Amino acid sequence: MKRQDPYAALKIKEFNLFLFVRFLLVFGWSMQFIVIEWQVYSITKDPLSLGIIGLMEIIPAFSMALFAGHIVDQKEKRNLLAVCTAAFSLISLGLFLLTSSHFVGHWSTNSILYSIYGLVFFGGFLRSFFGPTIFSLVALLVPKNIYHNAATWSTSTWKTAAVSGALFGGFFISWIGVDKTLCLVFILVILSLIVLFQINKKPILNKKIGEPMGKSLKAGIQFVFKNKAILGVLTLDMIAVLFGGTVAILSVFAQDVLKVGPEGFGVLNASISMGSILTMLITTYIPINKNTGKKMLISVFIFGISIIAFGLSSIFWVSILALFISGAADGISMVIRQTILQLKTPDEMRGRVASVNSMFVGSSNELGAFESGLAAKILGPIVAVVFGGTMTLITVVATGALNPTLRELDLTKEIEANEKEM
Length: 422
Prior knowledge:
Elements: H1 13-44, H2 47-74, H3 77-99, H4 101-106, H5 109-141, H6 147-175, H7 178-196, H8 213-226, H9 228-244, H10 250-257, H11 261-283, H12 292-312, H13 316-344, H14 350-379, H15 381-402, H16 404-407, H17 412-421
Helix pairs in contact: 1-2, 1-5, 1-6, 1-7, 2-5, 2-14, 3-5, 3-7, 5-14, 6-11, 6-13, 9-12, 9-13, 9-14, 9-15, 10-11, 11-13, 12-13, 12-15, 14-15
């Protein structure tokens, strides 16, 4: 197999526009997440309230996921993403108004808190459409022989935006305040909408337009559950995110355990994504096609170890290092997961498969946030994090033993076959 150009996908203009749009959206969403978590915990001083944020997002995201996948496979992707982005801008505008001096001075604390939860709920509804739409659009912007390269750059852009949003979210809370930071998010989302319309509308590849929803959803679910590699990688990532996620209670560690303030809070969040960015950029030069399954298992195992180390640390720089390593390991697993999904999913089924993916992995972020908040409430933040890391390690060992298809997965032949087709 000839050496893949690490910049192959970046030579396509519309893919670059897509990356810019994705950066703006994720940067804004990540910053908004940090600010809202900080604001809610500052209001309540209750870690369970952070878990409620996750619960408010998972309910609509999970319940709407399959329906969203069906809609995505039936609709034109560029315009659908534009509709989702416009709706996201309304959420950002609403959060800005809720935290402005006018509302803070005239509304009760509970009214503001419940309104924030309501907008988070609406955001969860939108997220059920965002993931499948973006996943499907990527495949329409690049030729099939560089899907794996596009997946790496797309995931790297997502993580770069996440680290930047997390880092600047913490700093902006200190520099300009919560309300002005949320106003900035609104501006960024509007800018992303303008750039998005520079991408041309794309053809709908699904030949079964108008297919009954029940039959369509059944086909998508059956495809995922019959493909042991896809099912295995989704299950592994779901458990790791569900129990090993620490992001939802990082504000507790920043304020009560490490006592590092909003700047330190931003650094802790950013350190996770900085590790992911580094490893994902490396994978553009060192492909993960060989021994793909084993690399996936090893990366998630390292993730679990680093989460335990973070939970046990009381030293700021050690905590940063542990989160950096967790992000690095998570970055590898994300690139592998996205590559497997892109290579093994038929074009006409991308929306539905991405929706199942969001139910397994995306929704487990929110459910994991609730689990982390509840566990921190009952067990304390340190024990909660150590418990989550331990559950991740147990899951890796069990998956490696019970799913030989994933353990022995190697994508070399599939990538070579795609290159020969072009």
